[in-house]
Amino acid sequence: MIEIKNLFKLYGTKRAVDNISLTIEKGDVVGFLGPNGAGKTTTMNIITGYISSTLGTVTVDGIDISKEPDKVKKKIGYLPEKPPLYLDMTVEEYLDFVYEIKSVKLPKKEHLAEIMELVKIDDVKDRLIKNLSKGYRQRVGIAQALVGDPEILILDEPTVGLDPKQIKEIRSVIAKLGKDRTVIVSSHILAEIEAICKKVIIINRGKLMAQGTKEELSEKLSAANTLSVRI
Ligand code: ATP
Fold it and tell me: Per the database entry, which stretches of residues form a coiled coil (predicted)?
């Protein structure tokens, strides 16, 4: 379970995150929905331990990220907006490299083969990453997030810049991953969050505007849509 309490992140006087409190239960598939600059990435970066908060706490299964960051990081796999892919490596070499730096306990060959099958990149495992399409690269990004065998997967705008076929593929991969993991996905596209997530957290100007299931939020979602959230 992820618990965020009174979280703030200030850049100068700018409140990128402005007093957000929320709880995400184990197994939830949750969407952070909000327009550009809403504070989604900043919140995700704090949960994953990439950056620290100005004020407030984030705990994962009761462990405070600011006190025991390594313990929390082991539980989380992260696909940042721009995943750090090594373009001159093959897919398999890259995942092997990530495996080695993460000191994973599962047997390497089987574990990586399972991940590649899960995200549907086994057919390109011997190709250089630089020669892959955007959709495949994004799935390699998701694969690297899975190497540490995380209980929680955080995906920042996983389908941005992809064509409809690639989007469909990524969504089906996320649906599979959400069956036995907690997943948080961010997007500024309402239809995207509706397609992937059971629960929605609407963020705007650093503030949590609403949270609940899609059904509970149907009115607010259409309001958000007319306000600033593109579909
Ligand atoms: P996007 O969809 O564009 O990624 P977002 O919802 O993820 O948007 P954030 O990237 O979290 O939003 O940004 C929230 C606000 O904080 C924005 O106004 C942004 O300009 C500001 N911000 C983010 N990172 C920094 C930084 N390192 N320094 C200064 N301001 C920042």
Answer: none
